[in-house]
Amino acid sequence: MVGFRGLRIILYGILLGYAVITFLPFAWALSASFKPLGEIVGGGMNFIPEHFTLANYRNIFIESPLFGRWFFNSLWVAVWVTVLNLLFNSMAGYALARIQFPGNPILFAIILAVLMIPGQVTLIPAYLILKSLGWLNTYQGLIVPNAANATFIFMMRQFFINFPKELEEAAALDGLSRWQTFLQVVLPLAKPALAAQAIFIFMGAWNNFLMPLMIVSAPEMFTLPLGLNTFKGQYISYWNYIMAASMVFTLPALGIYAFFNRYFISGVTFTGSKG
């Protein structure tokens, strides 16, 4: 008993140490967002600013005219990418799990093959397709290529394989069509899986840098990751503005994680490996 308690104390100590190490960079960035540039580049790891200032936040919100537009662009793209993924990934996962149509196993094998292809490999083909469509520097160019995700199609398929068929059969006896069953019965009960999916998709779309860098060249169409990069120059980087903008940048991601956190663990657990 004593040995088990001691092992648990050691484990908690390791986890606590890891949590502190993980949190320290964020704490320093938060502190640096209230420091002038000279104090940041002067070195030192002081977490309490010697010259506390709100000028960094005032600069990015008032003196940087495009910062608000960048924030809106990121939020608009991330929200639409999340909504479309929740819909299309759920539809595809449900079809693969429940509808026995010709080519179902082949289509599922293709989706598994897509999981093995690095996203960087598809950047040039995606750019050429978007250029031919005239979608460069547009919202649809940022949203449509990311409207579905093979990883979460697979995840939703695994969830729906474990979904009780009795509920669908009861809905059919009540006269509901396949569409009505999916929208009114299946989807509302899939909230745990949808919540876990929403967290990952929103954070991925919100933090995406490479895809917008390739598609967008007009400053007014920049997302926040691209906008933050403009504070870095060849000879000087305005780290005070970067830290302040980074703190603003983290707020939506923290908000959506806090909102869906109660569903997160159960959502991952429900996506078992049956089938």
| Relative helix content | over 70%
SSE order, as H and E? HHHHHHHHHHHHHH
CATH topology: MetI-like fold
- Form type: globular
Strand content: under 5%
Rg estimate, integer Å: 23 Å
Number of domains: 1
Span of the ends, CA to CA: 40 Å
Number of helices: 14
From the 3D coordinates, which CATH architecture would you assign?
Orthogonal Bundle
CATH class: Mainly Alpha
Profile the largest sheet. none
What is the CATH superfamily classification? MetI-like
Question: Can you walk through the features of this model?
Answer:
By secondary structure, this protein is an all-alpha fold. It has one domain: MetI-like fold, CATH 1.10.3720. It has helices at 2-32, 37-41, 55-63, 67-98, 104-115, 123-133, 139-143, 150-161, 165-173, 178-189, 191-207, 210-215, 224-229, 239-270. The longest helix is centred in the N-terminal third of the chain and has 32 residues, at 67-98. The protein is globular, with a radius of gyration of 23 Å. It starts with a helix and ends in a 5-residue tail after the last helix. Residues 267-275 have low confidence and may be disordered.
